[in-house]
Amino acid sequence: MASKLVVKVMVGVNDPERCAQAFTVATTALASGVEVSLWLTGEAAWFALPGKAEEFELPHSAPLSQLLESLLLAGTVTLCTQCAVRRGIESKDLIPGVVIAGAASFVEEIMADGTKVLVY
């Protein structure tokens, strides 16, 4: 099993099934003992803001807010720098525990030995 899983989610309410799948896979890996890092990019960037995950609905899916809470407690959640800037999101706006980082940090993270990457 990989020592670390990086999940990059680029979709949000525009593609709810892929979005929910990304969060579900990330939290399932976390529950299995895998170190998990979730990157919020594109439309998923909005989930870095308070209340946005609570607004997400998909029938027969775990509540996104609960999945995000699990990731914040036991994994890491990073918001893409460019995605934040494009949406006018600043560090002061974020849910506690979410950090903003750019491509260099993403590349460093995914190039580590034993890391697996999933993109949604």
Give your account of this protein's structure.
This protein is of the alpha/beta class. The chain has a single domain, classed as 3-Layer(aba) Sandwich (Hypothetical Protein Ychn, Chain: A), CATH 3.40.1260. The protein has five helices and five strands; from the N terminus they run βαβααβαβαβ. It has a five-stranded parallel β-sheet.
What secondary-structure arrangement, pairings included, does this model have?
Elements lengths: L3 E6 L6 H16 L3 E6 L11 H4 L8 H11 L1 E5 H6 L11 E4 L1 H8 L4 E5 L1
Parallel strand pairs: 1-2, 1-5, 2-3, 3-4
Which properties best describe this structure?
Hypothetical Protein Ychn, Chain: A, 22% strand, 38% helix, globular, 120 residues, alpha/beta, 5 helices, five-stranded parallel sheet
